[in-house]
Amino acid sequence: MKALLSSLLVLCIINTAPAQSGDDKIFLKGDQVIEAGGGLALFFHSKITWKGQDTTYNDSTGSIIFPVRYQYALNDWFGIGGMFRFHNYIEGQNDESQAVGFDLGARADMHYLRTRRLDFSGALGFGYTHMDWKGNDVSNQHFYGSGFHFDVELIGRFYFSDHFGMNICYGRIIQNLPNMT
Hints:
Elements: E1 3-16, E2 32-36, E3 39-50, E4 53-73, E5 78-90, E6 98-114, E7 118-134, E8 142-159, E9 164-177
Antiparallel strand pairs: 1-9, 2-4, 3-4, 4-5, 5-6, 6-7, 7-8, 8-9
């Protein structure tokens, strides 16, 4: 199965960050930022290709996510790094199916507004994605597959202290799962 899932992601993460260097701005050359947390995401799916036939439909789901990101500041405004994101999709209240997935990839962030407690950036990411869906009904269906993902995000980071803050992220994720079976 080849599935192209266009997803809109809205994310709120509690994160950790390294101690600031005493400068009046966040994210300086050489900084290493590690973010770990949990949050909620909303996904809107619009196209599926199943056994060579395109099907256009609109569907949405929520997901409880657990992301971990690392970023190294190449200079005061640009960083590169990696990410891991686990998804536990929220199914309808009468649906006892279970869907989980994860993304593993690389990313680049451009920090365009930085203050002592505020950091706004844009990010591009790509990498490997995997999804596993199990139905819990009469047919007991099971679908799983892997492929690649590409995402674009706008991120606002609000630091409450030198080590603790919150992210709000708005982005678009495109997943291609060509071998979904």
